[in-house]
Amino acid sequence: MYLLGCDIGSSSIKASIVDQESGLTVGADFYPKEEAAIYAVRPGWAEQDPENWWNNLKVAIQGAMTKAGIDGREISAIGISYQMHGLVVVDKKKQVLRPSIIWCDSRAVPYGDRAFHVIGEKECLSHLLNSPGNFTAAKLAWIKENEPRIFENIDKIMLPGDYIGMRLTGDIVTTVSGLSEGIFWDFKKNALSAELMNYFGFSDSLIPEIRPAFGLQGELLESVAAELGMKKGTPVTYCAGDQPNNALSLNVLNPGEIAATGGTSGVVYGVNGKVSYDHLSRVNTFAHVNHSEEQTRLGVLLCINGVGILNSWVKRNVAPEGISYNELNELAMKAPIGSAGLSILPFGNGVERMLQNKPADCSIHGLNFNIHDKSHVARAAQEGIVFSFKYGMDIMNEMGMNINVIRAGYANMFLSPIFREALAGVTGTVIELYDTNGADGAAKGAGIGAGIYHSPEEAFSSLKKIDVVEPDGFKANDYCGAFEVWKERLEKEIN
Predict the structure, then answer these.
(1) d(CA 382, CA 486)
(2) Please, which residues have CB within 8 angstroms of residue 415's CB and are 6 or more apart in sequence?
(3) I need a surface site. Which of 30, 207, 408, 415 has the fewest CB within 10 A?
(4) CA distance 64 to 29
C-alpha cells in the first residue's frame, strides 16, 4: 500500500507517492513546469486563484501515480502541506468569493499593526506569540473594510491547505497549528483568541471545525475518487503549513532541532519546548505539528521573502540568456568571497518581518562599474540571501535558541555550493542535507495520522542523509567580514 503527499506551493504543486512499508518515494511529479503566476494588481499585493491550485494538484497526482506505476486504489491515506498564511474565503455553497491573498502580500500590514497597538503589544506577544502583522487575520480585516460585500457573504475562512482538504473531502476543517499561523490562537487560554476576534469584529462562525494535524481531516469524495482513480473514502489524515511540514519531513520535532528551506522564500525553523517570543516580533512563533496542551512544541520561524525569487531574477535578467542554475552557480564562483565589495540586500518580495515590517526594497550597494561584472552580481545575490539568514538567526539566538546544526532538504538554494559554504561559514553551523521534500513529508505525515506508523521515528527511519557541510575556518573569516559590511549597509538602509 502507498501514501500520497500533496504540497501546495506558490510556485508549483507537488505530489509524492511513498511506499508505506519501505518509506521510499516511488513516484513524484509537480505542476506547472514553469513557476505559477502570482498576480500583483498593485505594488505589494500578491494573489493566486485557488482553483488553479486544485487543477494543478490533479495533474501532479496523476503524474506521480503514472511514474510510480501504481493503481490509485492502493493509496491508503493522503497528507497535505501548503503555503502558509494565505486566505481563502468561501460562501455557504463552498464557492470561492475572491482570489486568495497569499503569504507575500503586504497590503494588510497597517491592519495588523493597528491591532498590535490597540489590543496591546504585551497582550499580543504573550497570548498570540506574534504581532497580528501581515498574517491571515489582518488579511481578513482588509477584506472586511475594503470589500464589504464579499465579507458579508463569507461563510468560512480557510488556509490554502484547508481549501485543498475541502476539495478532496467536502469537509471544511482546520488545525490549531493553522489557526496559530493565522494569528487566531490564544496560547495562554488554548482557545480561539476572543480578544483578536472581538477587535476585528469577526464572528467565531467564520472559523472551521478544528481537527488534530495528525488525524482524520475527511474522506475522499466519490466524485473526486472517480476523477483521480482512487478509492472513495480514502482518508486525509494530515494537514500542516509548509514550514512545520518541512521540519516534520526532516524529523525535526523536539526542542533544539532546526530545519531550513531555501525556496521562493527562505526559512529557518527551530522547535522550542517553552512559550517564548521575540519582544520586537521580528521572528514568528507558531504551534508545531506535534504541539498539544500537554506537550509544548512551538516552531520559531524566521522567514526571508526574497530568497530563491532573487536568484531566479538574476538568472532571468542578469545572467546570459538560457543559462541553467548550475551554470549560474559556476558564474558566481568566478567572483571572490565578498563579491569585491558588492552587496545586495535581498528584500524585494514584500515587507520583511525580521525588519519589523519596515519598507525595504532589494538594493545593490558598492557597485563599481570598473570592477564588477555579472559574476559579482550573481555571487552577491547568493551571499546577500545567506547574510539575511545570518541576521535573522542572530535574533533567534537572542531568544535563547542554540543553533549548531541545520537540517535541510537537498533542493532549491541548498543545491548551490556557494550558498551552502557561505551559510555554514558565516553562522558557524554544520549543515546536514537530506533526500526529502515537502510532499514526501506530507505523505509520511498521513501515515502517522492514519496510525500506519506508530511514531515519527518509525515514519522517518528511511530518511537518507546525502551530505554534511562544515564551516571552513579560513573562508569563514572572509564570509564574516563580508557579512559585517552587508549588515552595516542594511542598517543604514532601514534606520
Answers:
(1) 12
(2) 325, 329
(3) 415
(4) 5
Q: For residue 245, what is its C-alpha cell? A: 511540514
Q: Beta partners for 467?
A: 433
Residue 85 half-sphere exposure toward CB, CA atoms < 13 A: 24
* Per-residue pLDDT tens over the stretch 224-237: 999 999 999 999 99
pLDDT in tens, 435-481: 998 999 999 999 999 999 999 999 999 999 999 999 998 899 999 99
User: Residue 401 has what pLDDT?
Assistant: 82
Residue 53: per-residue pLDDT: 98
Q: Would you state the pLDDT for residue 104? A: 87
Residue among 358, 363, 361 at smallest CA distance from 109: 358
Task: Round the CA-based radius of gyration of the chain to a whole number and report it.
Answer: 22
Instruction: List the Cα angle 415/417/420 in 5-degree steps.
Output: 80
Whose cell is 539566538? That residue is 397
pLDDT beyond 90 at 418: yes
493: buried, middle or exposed (CB in 10 Å: 19+, 13-18, 0-12)?
middle
Q: Which residues pair with 289 in a beta bridge?
A: none
Buried b (16+ CB within 10 A) or exposed e, 262-277: bbbbbbbbbbbeeeeb
Q: What average pLDDT does the segment 18-44 reach?
A: 94
CB 111 within 8 A of CB 141: yes
Strand partners, 430: 405
Q: Which residues face 240 on adjacent strands?
A: 81
Contacts for 375 with CB less than 8 Å, ≥ 6 apart: 331, 332, 333, 334, 335
CA–CA distance, 203 with 140 (Å, rounded to integer): 12
| pLDDT at residue number 494 | 86
CA angle 292, 301, 248 (to 5 degrees): 55
Contact at 8 Å (CB) between 253 and 456?
yes
**Strands 405-409 and 258-262, sheet pairing:** parallel
